[in-house]
Please model this.
Amino acid sequence: MRDIDMPGKYDSDAVEAGRYDKWREEGRFQPSGNEKARPYSIVIPPPNVTGKLHLGHSWDVTLQDILIRQKRMQGFDTVWVPGMDHAGIATQAKVEQRLAEEGISKYDLGREKFVEQVWDWKNEYAETIHEQWKKMGISVDYSRERFTLDEGLSEAVRKVFVDLYNKDLIYRGEYIINWDPKARTALSDIEVIHEDDEGAFYHVKYPFVDENDRFDGKDYIEIATTRPETMFGDVAVAVHPSDERYKELVGKKVRVPLVDREIPIIADEYVDPEFGSGMVKITPAHDPNDFAVGNRHDLERINTMNEDASINENAGKYNGMDRFEAREAMVSDLRAGDYMLKIEPIVHAVGHSERTGVQVESRLSTQWFVKMEPLAKQALAMQDNPDDKVTFNPSRFEGTYERWMENIHDWVISRQLWWGHQIPAWYNKQTGEIYVGMEAPKDAENWEQDTDVLDTWFSSALWPFSTMGWPDTDAHDYKRYFPTDTLVTGYDIIPFWVSRMIFQSKEFTGKRPFKNVLIHGLIRDEEGRKMSKSLGNGIDPMDVIDKYGVDALRWFLATGSTPGQDMRFSYTKMDAAWNFINKIWNASRYVIMNLDEDTKPELPTDLSTLSLADRWILSRLNKTVDSVLKNFDKFEFGEAGRALYNFIWDDFADWYIEMTKETLNGSDEAAKQTVQSVLAYVLDQVLRLLHPIMPFVTEEIYLDMPVHTFDTIMVADFPEVHAELDDAVAETDFQSLVDLITAVRSIRTEANAPMSTTVDVMIKTDDANLQRIFQENADYINRFVKPKELTIGADVDAPTLAMTKAISGAQVFVPLEELIDIDDEIARLKDDAKKFAGEVKRSSGKLSNDKFVNSAPENVVNAEREKLADWEDKLASTNARLAELEAAKKA
Model:
C-alpha cells in the first residue's frame, strides 16, 4: 500500500477550503469558447435583493448547477448567467422599515436620496447573495452577471414599454385595481393572497325615497354588506332582471343611510338571485364587479378612501378616520339611527398584500395596463408547434400555464413606488399631452415624467433575452445562447413569471424563451409544514452547510424528491447524505492506497483477461451510466441518485472492493495490475458521474488519484455507455456467487456461528454452469464464508442436522450439529416455504392475467415467467428438505 495524504475520515471543511475561488480564478465557469460545440445556456431565476437566500433557492441553484456541470463535461459550450432582481415593492418595504426604526420616512429624504439608500441596501445584500452562491458551489459566469436595473436591462424595459404602447397594447386608464394601503401602490391579482378573516354581514335598512313605496309591507329594503365603510360610495341597488320578487322595485329610489343620498334600484344580470336576498348595493369606486355594472348603467364613481385607506371628504364627518375605525363609528351610528337590522358574524376570504400583509382595497385609480388577450393568444398558439413550444417537466404544469393564460385579465403594470424602472411617459405641463419614448422629450423643461415605476415582473419577464444583450439582436450571446435551454423554478411562480416570460419572448423575439421548464416544489419542514417566520421552522442552508458540508446538502436536494413534488427537509436524511459521502471517501481512499504511482484509469486492451468480478463490476457500472444519463435527460435526479447510491455502496464498496483484496494481497503481479486498472477506471468513472451533484469531494478525490487525465474533474468527459462492457452472463454468474455467500452468512447469523468459526459448506446442484462458477471462484467463497470444507455437486447428501437455504438453481447446506435444533430448523424452513409460496401465488396470478400477458412488453412477461420458475424451484427444494427433516425427526 502507498502512503497517501488522505485523512481517514471525510472533512468537508478541508475539502471545500479555497476550491471555489480557485475554479473562479482559472475561469472554469466561463464558456469554452468552442464555437463548433453545441451551446447550452441557463439564466438563473434572479433572487430578490431583500435578504438571505433560503433552502428553496439552494434547491433551485443545485438543480441548475447539476445541468450545467454535466453539459460542460459532455463538451457543450455552456453558459449560466447569474443575476438579481431589484424586487420593487419588497425591497422598498425593507428599506422603509429600516429607516422607520431610525425615525425617518422616505418623504423626509425625498425620492433621489431615498433611492440612494435602496442602492446601498442592494449592494449590501448582493454581497451576501454572492457569498451564499459561493458556499453552494454554483458555477455561474460572474463576468455576465446582470441586475434588473442595470443600464442594458433598463434599455430593454423602455423598448418593450414603448413598442407595446405604440401597438396599442399598453394603455392608461381609470379602473378598479388592487391597492396596498401600506405600500401605497397598485398590485396585480397574483400579488394578492386570500386569507380567512373574521368579519360580519351587516344587514342595513335603505329607506324608500317615496313615502308611499313598500316592500313586504315595509318602507325600506334590506341590504347586507361586509364593508359599511364604503356605503358613502353607493350609487345604486341592483337586482337580477328575471327576479320576480323585485320586478316592481326596479326604477324606484332609496336613500343611503347616514348620507341621505338618493340612489336608484336597477336591474343587472351580474346579480346572483340565489345569493343572500338577491339585492346588492353598487359601489363602482370600491369593487371591480360594481365598476363593470356602473359602466353599463353610466353610474357615478364616488371614491371614499385616500391612498392610505383612511376615509376622505366624500364620507362627511368620518373624513380622516382609518377605514376600520370608520367602520366601527358607522356601525354605531347606524344602530343609533335605527338603520341596523342585525349583525351576522362570518369568516370570509379577504385579500392581503403578498408583501406587506395588510388587507388590500379595491380602489378606483388611474394606472397603466398591458392588454393581455392578443399576447396570451399568440403565446398559447406557440404551444401547438412541437418545435416552438416550451416543454414543461412534469408535463401536468403545462395545464397550469394554459389555464392562467386562457383566463387572463389585463395586467396593471404601474406601481406607486420610487424604486424601480420609472415609466417612460411624460406629460406636457401646459396641454396634458402624453409622450412615450425611449428618451425624454427634447424640451424636457416643458414636460413632467410619470412618477410611477413598473411592476417588478415587467422587467423580470424579459430576463431570458435581455440578459443576452437584447434589444441588440446582433449581440454575440443573444445570437449564440438564445433561446436558453432550461429554466428551473418552483411551481408557485408559473403565473407570476414563467407565463410572462413566454408571452413577452414570443412578442419581442418571435421565439420561446427556453426549451424546457423544470418545475420543482416547495421545501417543507419534517412535519410537512411550509417554512415560515411565524412557525419558527425556517432552516438556513448556510447553517446546514456548516454542519454537513455543501456536497451533502446538494445530494439531499438533488435526490430528495421527484420533479414537481414538495420536499421535506430532514436532518436524518442529512446524516444519511454525510454517511454516503464518507463511504465514498473511505472506498476511494482504499482504492488510491492500492494503486501504483503510474496506474492509469484505463482498462486492459484485452478484456478477456478480466476475472468474473471484474467483468461484473464493469457491466454494473455500464448499467449505472446508462441509468444516470437517461434520468438526467428526464430531470429525474432522484432516480439517477438511487442508481449511483446502489452501485457505489453495494456493488463497488461492499462487493467488488472486498473481492479485490485477495488479488491485491496475492503474488500474481499480472492479476494485481489488472485489478488496479479496473479499480482506477471504476473510481474515475464514479467520480465523474457524481461530480455534477457533489463537485467538491469529487474534485478532491479525482486530484488525489495517482494519474488523472485532466487538471480538474470539471472538464473531464462525462461517462458514456460502452456496449462492449455489457455482460449479462457475468452479472448472472456473479449474482449466483453473491447469493451463495449471502445464504451462508445468513445461516451463520441465524445459528450464531461467528466468522471465526469454520464450518462445512455443501452446495447441491445439478446445474453444470453453477458448479463451474462456484469451483472457479472458490477463492472468493473461501474468503467470504471461511468454509472448513467446500463440497459442490449434484449428489451431495446433506446430513440431517444441517441448516439449509435455497438459492437459484441450488441448495446450500451448512452442517451445524452442535449449534442447531431440528425443530428450530423445521420452523425456519416452513417460514421460507411460506414466503416462496406467496411469491409463486403472486407471480402465477400476474401471468394468468390476460391483460398483463397481452399488454406488457415481451421481455417483461418473459422475465416474470423466469421469476415464477425460480420461485417454484426454491419452493420445491425447500419442501423436499422439510420432508427429509420431518422424516428424520420421526425416525
Remarks:
- The radius of gyration is 37 Å.
- The mean pLDDT is 92.
- The longest strand covers residues 192-207.
